[in-house]
Amino acid sequence: MAGRLKDKVAIVTGAGSRGPGIGNGKAAAILFAREGAKVLCVDADVARAEETVKVITAEGNTALAFAADVTRATDCRAMVEHAVSTWGGLDVLHNNVGVESWLDLMATTEKEWDRVMAIDLKSMLLATQAAVPAMEKRGRGAITCVSSIAAMVGHGRTAYAAAKAGVIGFVTSAAVQLGPKGIRVNGIAPGQVWTPMVEALGSQARERRRRASPLGTEGSGWDVGWGAVYLVSDEERWVTGHILVIDAGLTATTR
After folding, report:
1. Which helix (H) or strand (E) covers residue 189, if one does?
2. Residue-level pLDDT at 154
3. Is the overall model pTM greater than 0.85, yes or no?
């Protein structure tokens, strides 16, 4: 069904991909636009956001690029102000920014811990705080936050797993607080999708990840993006505080 986000204004953070291909944020931004939203594509590297905008506008849809470091409250307020001043309001915030950390418990330094927590978790707080006043003026809104199945299963990437678990706690807390304002807050926990962020793992790891799940198929940023479309659409008007797991059944094998 086309037009699921018709006339909505959306912000997607981390809307650029780190290299050739389609990351989760880029896919969400493109799909939001295809469904009728006007999309502000936000990235710390504005050139990456501009690449996403080119794809969207080439398809005849509406988007703008915006440079912001979403670990800074001033940048988060600026991106919301830009969306509101350009298109008149804000309906959707997709909190997608995140970085990996491959270090285990004893190898994780204080600097590494702080870096991952700031980008993967603090950014969700600051962007959401910035978005809420604009959504309140609309009397409604939808916020999604990208977590990971690393938050749900035993994992060797200590800082990453902890930050993504924090995202789940943030989602449930924010959903309860913002529900009375008509603002829904949900999360997405992707499994081992193949995106530019993990390209450096190589072909053997790629095949191993593909075979790990019951479906035995490879996930991509598009799979996560379609989940985001559902969560911010009016089809989902009665769902909040939910974590949508998109992992080809991988976490089912650990229950």
Report:
1. strand 183-190
2. 76
3. yes
| DSSP 3-state of 39 | strand
Residue 220 φ/ψ, nearest 5 degrees: -140, 175
Listed residue (199, 188, 170, 198) closest to 226, CA to CA: 188
Q: Is 160 a catalytic residue?
A: yes
Q: Which residues pair with 40 in a beta bridge?
A: 11, 64
CB 8 within 8 A of CB 92: yes
Active-site annotation holder among 32, 66, 160, 170: 160
Q: What are the φ and ψ backbone dihedral angles of 227, each rounded to 5 degrees? A: -60, -40
179 three-class SS: helix
Residue 177 phi/psi, 5-degree rounding, is -75, -35
Rounded-to-integer distance, Cα 127 and Cα 71, Å? 8
Backbone phi and psi for residue 26, each to the nearest 5 degrees, phi listed first: -65, -45
CA distance linking residue 20 with residue 247, whole number of Å: 23
Span 180-202, pLDDT tens digits = 999 999 999 998 887 676 766 66
For residue 35, what are the CA distances in angstroms to 135, 146, 203, 235? 20, 20, 33, 13
Q: Are the CB atoms for 126 and 76 separated by under 8 Å?
A: yes
